[in-house]
Amino acid sequence: MAAMLQRPEHQVAGHEAGAGKLGPLIDGSGNFFKPLDPSDERGAHELAFYNSFYSDQRVPRSIRSSFFPSFGGTKILPVPDSPDLLLPHLVLEDLLHGYSNPCVMDVKIGARTWYPNASEKYYAKCLKKDRNSTSALLGFRISGLQVHHESGRWKPHRDKVKKYAVTEVRQSLRQFVSKNPDATDPDCALASLVYGGSNGILAQLLELKSWFEDQTLFHFYSTSLLIAYDKGGKAARVKLIDFAHVIEGEGIIDHNFLGGLCSLIKWVSEILADAKTAAGPTDPQLLERAADLEAAAGLTEPKVAVGPTENGIH
Amino acid sequence: MAAMLQRPEHQVAGHEAGAGKLGPLIDGSGNFFKPLDPSDERGAHELAFYNSFYSDQRVPRSIRSSFFPSFGGTKILPVPDSPDLLLPHLVLEDLLHGYSNPCVMDVKIGARTWYPNASEKYYAKCLKKDRNSTSALLGFRISGLQVHHESGRWKPHRDKVKKYAVTEVRQSLRQFVSKNPDATDPDCALASLVYGGSNGILAQLLELKSWFEDQTLFHFYSTSLLIAYDKGGKAARVKLIDFAHVIEGEGIIDHNFLGGLCSLIKWVSEILADAKTAAGPTDPQLLERAADLEAAAGLTEPKVAVGPTENGIH
């Protein structure tokens, strides 16, 4: 069993397993194992969240299956590079299982990552990060991303991503759906396929928003949205990950997460609208290209899909 | 002219005019004059906002007229108790003009009142207030309220209101629509009339929310919603007030205001739903009482209106 475990190749943020360092592992069969470090209360907290979340009948089944990794309890596993050390791991769904060339973005949602009753030390640390990143201003920040394109994989260094200013975050949301992500003017060629359509990212974000306008069970501090699609726009999905700082909602909506989510939705909508405007639904050449893209992706949903334009996307 | 000016009787929050203190004045004809203290940059900032807001064609006319006080420029007026001192005043709409017995609530929206680029001193002051009030937790706080009922006016001291905990804020939203606001179990007798209906507070809050999901022109820090109705539920309205800390949106939605607004909407919805459940639309006695209330208020909109119930409202 242990021989089959490996580090997730497409991880863009969070702890990475390495020499003397704990990090998640995957088994290549759809399982994602997240170590529960006994010296860190966050692991126990995240386990408690999964147990609570998956047993709470007030969470709609569709929300659970659409937006959360499936959860299979815990499993004792050897730690890589220290095979004599056994540690319990959360057994979660490998959200990128089956993707051949995943494009992935980790977006930490919420203008603030500190929560009421946090220790003063943790509070001060979070507050500083929120003010020094785009969180406070924008309601979210990007923790990491990678984009596969024809000539390979584009993955900016996570330290660089963490320092992104507002304009760079906006640019990232365009790069994420571009065939030339590292160009000065990314083409947003996949915007309609990935962000648009009734099963696209925007539709999923809007469904999630509806739940957050109503649910008062949990407040998701420091939780990320993992946004992913496979080459050509296939299987675009949005999942919540990282629940080490979730607290009970106590009858109040999670206005911090909801506000940040609405901010993200606004920008995704704008990029989508710009892409549609730039392409125009009546240009025969672009429609043909769009049809090709749709066929390549096995999709029929999007009504408008765009290719690169000479004018670029604004 | 000066002889006709008086202090607004129904002010529930903010500066009050008094000996040696500047505060707003009304003329009894629908005008509200807010002094522009030359020693305080907030006045100049608020004037700049009004000028900018009322000249910006991107603000829908319906939003402007529904949710903002009308603005008539500035006017030089003598200061009460110091008639030799002349000061410029903002000429605004007296939002309670024509109300005989207004019930009024001032709700400061947003989990945080500090804004990016605020001075460290102002930032620290706001942060402390946000954490010590319900703002951080709930996304809004109540700065003051008054409720008229049959035996007079109930107006808790504003210092007490400012210290309200979450449960007391929730209770206030019930007291605000009760005929017995100072009872242990307020009856929410006017919930359907005031909060409900196609012209009620909830409908107005939802319309405002739609705009905030889209607008990226302004970020309204430390801005309040003035929620008011007259005796019997008449003329329920929601207006934004206090714009001394509004900054430009720069293409980002005001996720801080929007999140708090959604939190308020959730609680108002719940109180309304509870009131409807408690009353039940089929009880003939309550329907008759509701019809009386509607007639008294000159309303025909609400489909369900409730009277007090023995079980109270939860």
From TrEMBL, chains A, B:
It catalyses: 1D-myo-inositol 1,3,4,6-tetrakisphosphate + ATP = 1D-myo-inositol 1,3,4,5,6-pentakisphosphate + ADP + H(+); 1D-myo-inositol 1,4,5-trisphosphate + 2 ATP = 1D-myo-inositol 1,3,4,5,6-pentakisphosphate + 2 ADP + 2 H(+). The keyword DNA repair does not apply. It comes from the Eukaryota. Pfam families: IPK. Inositol phosphate kinase with a broad substrate specificity. It is an enzyme of class 2 (transferase). GO terms for biological process: inositol phosphate biosynthetic process. Residues 1-21 are annotated as: Disordered. Belongs to the inositol phosphokinase (IPK) family. Gene3D superfamilies: Inositol polyphosphate kinase. Keywords: ATP-binding, Kinase, Nucleotide-binding, Transferase. InterPro entries: IPK, IPK_sf. One of its GO terms (molecular function) is ATP binding. The keyword Membrane does not apply. It comes from Rhynchospora tenuis. This is Inositol polyphosphate multikinase. One of its GO terms (cellular component) is nucleus. Its EC number is 2.7.1.140, 2.7.1.151.
